[in-house]
Known about the structure:
three-stranded antiparallel beta sheet
Amino acid sequence: MKGIIFTESNFHLTVQGKKTMTRRIIKSRTGFFSVCSKNGIVTDIWQCDANEYTGENLIPVNPRYKVGETVYLKEPYIITGQTYEYEYLHENKTDITCIKRNGGYKNKLFMPERAARYFIKIIGVRAERLQDISEEDCIREGITSYLLDPSKAYTHIKEYGIKDYGIKDYGIKDYMGGFNTPQEAYAALINKINGKDTWDNNPWVWVYDYELKTKEQ
């Protein structure tokens, strides 16, 4: 079974059922893509050369996760010394003595399936440009409105644990004022995760719809 990594805040939003979609940048060795679409929906995508669509660089690009596939969520964990049970950083239950004895929490990147406690099922996959994200999809990505008028202020700051982020780099004048649109909030979030030019670069992304489930489902 494959694993998937989220930021800590995205992890929490997923297990709370508040985030049901994720976007992952599509990689190309050449930096160029050839796309086939039908009725506005991308059906196939290939890596290609800069000035031609044939040759050895014309290689199909497939999503890492497929519809119907169950994926486990990776998170920092530790194996307790005496009981050999798994405990998790996100719960903050492990005492400091145990952490020191076991060398600290293990990097979530290398978390094996056997240690996982949360799972998602992929229920939809498609490719699109990052900036094509709709308001509805921003909400499914975890962006929320926190003022009475949802058309005036959206945020990822509280939900995603981003404290005072963007005030200097992104010109956010009023921390409590949030963002005017869900897309603005999502743009700041994706720049925080993948680099500040990510939104402006507008890369191709895989869009994964998913639902939380147990391993047995």
